[in-house]
Write a structure and sequence with these properties.
By secondary structure, this protein is α/β, with parallel strands linked by helices. The protein is built from 12 helices and 9 strands. Bound molecules: ligand C2E and magnesium ion (3 copies).
Length: about 290
Amino acid sequence: QVKAQGRNAIEFFNLGMADKVSHQLKLESELHKALDECQFELYFQPKIELSSGHIMGAEALLRWNHPERGLVSPGEFIPVLEGSGLMIDVGQWVIEEGCRTLQQLDQMGGWQAGMQLSLNVSSRQFRGQHFVDTVTRILEEYPIPANSLDLEITESVIIQSIEDTIATMSTLSSMGISFSLDDFGTGYSSISYLKRLPVSTLKIDYSFIRDIVEDRNDRVLAETIVTMGQLLDLSVVAEGVEEKSQLDILAAFGCDYYQGFYFSKPVPLAQFHALLEVRQPVALEV
Ligand code: C2E
Ligand code: MG
Ligand code: MG
Ligand code: MG
C-alpha cells in the first residue's frame, strides 16, 4: 500500500518534471520562431537630464509580441534565451535593430547630437567569441555615429573575467561606444575595477529606489553611489523612479539623470519619437 503510494508520488514527480521540460522546450521553439518571424520589438524608455528637463537618450527594452499571448516581458523569456544559447542571436538582433532605429530617428528628426541609445547586453552575449566582430560589422552596415551607442552591462559580466572584460570594453570604447553599469550595487560590487574599466555611467538599481522614501539604508546606499559617481567622474542614472518624492531625495544627493515611470514608461518607437518631437522640458513641479 505504502509502496504503491510512494511509486505514485514518484510518478507524479516525474510527470511534473516532464511537464516542466516540455514547457521549456515549447518556449524555446516558440522563441526560435519569434526570431524568424520578427515577433520581437524594441520599446524605448527616455532618460531625462534633470537640469534641463530634456530627454538625453533612451534605453531600448526587448518585447515579444506573442501571437496568442500578446506582449510578453523580458523577465519571462530572457532566462530561457540565456539557457538555450539563443541569447546570442537575439542579442545580435537587438544591436542591429537598435542601430537601424538610430538611423531612422536621425532621418525622422528630433534625435539630437549628443543623445545616446542604450542597449542591454547579456553576460553570455558580451563574453561570446564574436561579440566585438559582430558590433563592428553592424556599425559598418548602419552608418550611425558610434558615440550615440551605449551598452548596458551588469557587474556579473565583469566578475567572470576582468582582463577579458577590459580588453573587450577597451576595443569597443576606442570605436566611440560608451558603457553603463546596469543594476549597480546589486552584484559583486566591482568598486576596485571601476577605475580600470572604460565605464561612463552607473545606473542605480531600482531596488534601492523603490523604498528610498521609507528606507534609510536604501537612502544611504543611493547617496553613496551618487557620491562615488561624482568622485570618479561618472554619470549616474537613477532607474525606476516612479514618484516625485523619490526624485526629490535623489536630486538632493546630486543625481543628474533619471529613468522611470514618473517620466515615461517604455513605449514603442512611434510614441518615443512623438516624445522627442515635443522638445519641451518634461514638466517638473520643482
Ligand atoms: P534593466 O536593464 O534593468 O531595465 C530596466 C527595467 O525596469 C525595465 O524592465 C523597465 O521597464 C523597468 N522600469 C523602468 N522604469 C520603471 C519604474 O519606474 N518602475 C518599475 N517598476 N519598473 C521600471 P523590463 O523592460 O521588463 O526589462 C527587464 C530586464 O530584462 C532588463 O532590466 C534587462 O535586464 C532585461 N532586458 C530587457 N531588454 C533586454 C535586451 O534587449 N537584452 C538583454 N540582454 N536583456 C534585456
Ligand atoms: Mg538596462
Ligand atoms: Mg537596470
Ligand atoms: Mg534590473
